[in-house]
Amino acid sequence: MDKPPTPQNAALARPVVASQHGPRPLPLFLDLLWRESRDDTELRRSALRGLRKYQEAARPAPPPMPPIFAAAGNSRLLRFNSAASNRAPVVFVPSLINPPRVLDLSPERSLVRAMAAAGHDAYLVDWGTPLDDDKGMDLTAHVADRLAPMIAALPQPPILVGYCLGGTLVAGAAALSPPRALATIATPWHFDGFPEQERADIVALWTRSQGTCVQMGYVPMEVLQSGFWSLDPARTIRKYAAFLDMPPGSDKELAFLAVEDWANEGPPLTLAAGQQLFEQFYGANQTGEKRWRIDGRVVDPEALACPTLSIASLTDKIVPAAASPRLAEHRELALGHVGMIVGSQAPHDVWMILSDWLSTHGG
Questions:
Q1: pLDDT digit string, tens, across residues 191-202
Q2: Which segments within the chain are labelled E, that is strand?
Q3: What is the overall mean pLDDT for the chain?
Q4: 226 vs 192, 202, 219, CA distance in Å?
Q5: Which of 7, 30, 85, 345 is the most exposed place for a label (fewest CB within 10 A)?
Q6: Residue 24: pLDDT above 90?
Q7: What is the mean pLDDT of residues 222-243?
Q8: CA dist 351 to 80, 113, 347, Å?
Q9: Rg of the chain taking only CA atoms, in angstroms
Q10: Vertex 159: Cα angle to 153 and 160 (nearest 5)
Q11: Nearest residue to 104 (alpha-carbon basis) of 78, 69, 70, 84
């Protein structure tokens, strides 16, 4: 087998395809697998078998859904600690890319539930699926018309904690209404901190995809996923080969399933949000050059008067440490982009640090 399972030999792929699970987009993944394993038939065989195992594996039931505290449009603010508290609310804001449950992945790997168990009044933003009328809603509007109204429903100014692009968005919210404190984790801000070729590749991906996205009226998750895979294609394939040897029901297997299911799901971005992200943020470094304004106010988390914390990773391939904002307190780790939140070292290296910092500032 020296050709990828394109339509002319799709029968090769059919035994490992299951409609209910990814990777998405599957044809692109299979093409990537064939290219990365062209000189290693054992890797190809193991990766395909690992793929089949992933698609057929039983999944445990997800954690129970917490109650909705507030809503704006199709977005919701979920509360994880129903007990009365005089502490400042702590609002966790995920990226618009992929579902919010990376912060509540499973009972054992839930940053938000861990914070609630530690006594913090924890909330999680669920951005929801954009509606047809939302295609003109850019990132600025997500802050002003979705995030800000839900924050305003809280009894007192919260501590905002943003992960990945969620950190960029909480910086926008802080420009509209000063929070009690603000923290970012693996957040892109200085887009000129991305490697030059990588940044050019991301812009080129948008250039190739833009026409189709305009016709569709939104940016499919598959467009974003293909960009993530291109950052480390060898690892993308080898992790499925490694999954083959994970014992069924083991902690490693369950962690792999949870993370991959999360990574292969997610609603599309609105067209306007995709345009702003690729053209203004990645392309023009609008945030890093302090040219992003919301309601006439410059968004600059590095100039906030409230306590601030930024956490970045020196081994993050999706958001390099050089792209992170440098806030009043800045910490650099050696964990992956997703590993900072759900990896085996995350409870000690990130969750504990964050919980102590929240407590110090009234959260």
A1: 999 999 989 988
A2: 68-72, 75-79, 90-93, 122-126, 159-163, 181-185, 218-219, 269-270, 293-294, 297-298, 308-313, 329-333
A3: 90
A4: 21, 10, 12
A5: 7
A6: no
A7: 84
A8: 16, 11, 5
A9: 20
A10: 85
A11: 78
- First vs last C-alpha separation in the chain: 57
Query: Looking up tokens 């490693």, which residue turns up?
Result: 252
16 burial class (0-12, 13-18, 19+ CB within 10 angstroms)? buried
Mean pLDDT of 106-127: 95
Which residues on neighbouring strands pair with residue 79, listed in sequence order?
123
The reported pLDDT for the residue numbered 287 is: 98
Tokens 């992170």, residue located: 324
Concatenated DSSP letters for 128-140?
Answer: -PPPGGGTT--HH
Query: In the numeric block, which tokens belong to residue 10?
Result: 């799709």
pLDDT for residue 225:
78
Beta bridge partners of 309: 183, 329
DSSP state of 362: T
Q: What's this model's pTM, rounded to 2 decimal places?
A: 0.90
pLDDT for the residue 6: 36
pLDDT level of residue 21 (50, 70, 90 thresholds):
low
Category of 73 on φ-ψ map: left (φ > 0), alpha (ψ -120 to 50) or beta: left
- For residues 123 and 79, the answer to whether their CB atoms sit within 8 Å is yes
CB 292, CB 282: distance < 8 Å: no
pLDDT of residue 172: 98
Handedness of CA 107, 110, 116, 118 (dihedral sign): positive
Q: Over range 11-30, report the average pLDDT.
A: 58
